């Protein structure tokens, strides 16, 4: 989904972008968007309709890490925690109701000012961002993207297609904590990385529950060689 870039969305729809784990229900089995089966308990899935649904498995704003840990768990003892998870459906034929699933609420877009007011309201309430859909069906998202930098203090070896070259950069942040940065690294950076001590720029979207930058991605190398770490 592309980022919103100020297009005129009048006549379209907008909704909150839920900070959860995307799920696909085929009528009998719940899977991730990459096709891996999710071990949702039968007492939870029996309330879903026998037709395809695509949506977000969600507990609440700011609970992404908790949601992911429950959804990806294979431990039967964790099944009890599914009572907190809701399936927010954004692609379905007809309304979805029940104790664990509901349709996403879409609001009509009348003007650009309304779009910005809605977006700011979601952020002020602790939400991740918003999704827009034009009258022709195009989808855009708007999320706050921040940037920061850290000092390159090490590398981790790559695996799979990156075997034999760099997998991730290890950065030291101003807080003194370490961040593994792999997103955004192209083949050239993995084969000929910047020298240790370089100041690496990255973008990110919010923080994890432990306070580290979330969805961090490489964006460049600064000319400076020190940030007073």
Q: From N to C, what is the helix and strand string?
A: EEEEHEHEEEHEEEEEHEE
Uncertain stretches: none
Rounded mean pLDDT is 90
User: How many strand segments?
Assistant: 15
Classify the secondary structure makeup into a structural class. alpha+beta
Highlighted features:
globular; 2 domains; OB fold (Dihydrolipoamide Acetyltransferase, E2P); 15 strands; 229 residues; alpha+beta; D-amino Acid Aminotransferase, Chain A, domain 1
Overall description:
- The chain is of the alpha+beta class.
- It has two domains: 2-142, DNA ligase/mRNA capping enzyme (D-amino Acid Aminotransferase, Chain A, domain 1, 2-Layer Sandwich), CATH 3.30.470.30; 146-221, OB fold (Dihydrolipoamide Acetyltransferase, E2P) (Beta Barrel).
- The protein has helices at residues 42-45, 64-71, 112-124, 187-191; strands at 2-3, 13-17, 21-25, 30-32, 53-58, 86-91, 101-103, 107-108, 129-133, 139-142, 146-157, 166-172, 178-181, 199-204, 217-221.
- The strands form three sheets. The chain has a five-stranded mixed sheet with strand order 1-10-9-2-8, covered by helices on one side. It has a five-stranded mixed sheet with strand order 4-3-5-6-7, covered by helices on one side.
- The longest helix has 13 residues, at 112-124.
């Amino acid at each position: 989904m592309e980022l919103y870039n100020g297009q005129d969305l009048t006549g379209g729809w907008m909704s909150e972008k839920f900070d959860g784990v995307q799920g696909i229900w085929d009528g009998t089995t719940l899977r991730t968007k990459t096709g891996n089966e999710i071990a949702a308990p039968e007492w939870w899935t029996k309330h879903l309709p026998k037709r395809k649904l695509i949506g977000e498995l969600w507990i609440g704003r700011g609970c992404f890490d908790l949601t992911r840990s429950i959804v990806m768990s294979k431990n039967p003892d964790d099944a009890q925690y599914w009572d907190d998870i809701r399936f927010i459906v954004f692609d379905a034929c007809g309304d979805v109701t029940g104790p664990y699933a509901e349709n996403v609420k879409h609001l009509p877009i009348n003007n650009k000012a309304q779009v910005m007011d809605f977006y700011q309201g979601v952020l002020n309430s602790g939400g991740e961002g918003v999704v827009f859909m034009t009258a022709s069906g195009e989808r855009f998202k708007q999320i706050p993207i921040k940037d920061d930098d850290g000092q390159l203090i090490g590398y981790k070896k790559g695996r799979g297609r990156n075997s034999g070259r760099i997998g991730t950069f290890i950065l030291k942040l101003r807080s003194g904590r370490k961040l593994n940065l792999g997103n955004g690294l192209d083949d050239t950076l993995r084969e000929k990385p910047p020298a240790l001590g370089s100041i690496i720029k990255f973008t990110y979207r919010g923080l994890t529950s432990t306070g580290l930058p979330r969805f961090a991605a490489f964006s460049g190398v600064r000319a400076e060689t020190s940030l007073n770490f």
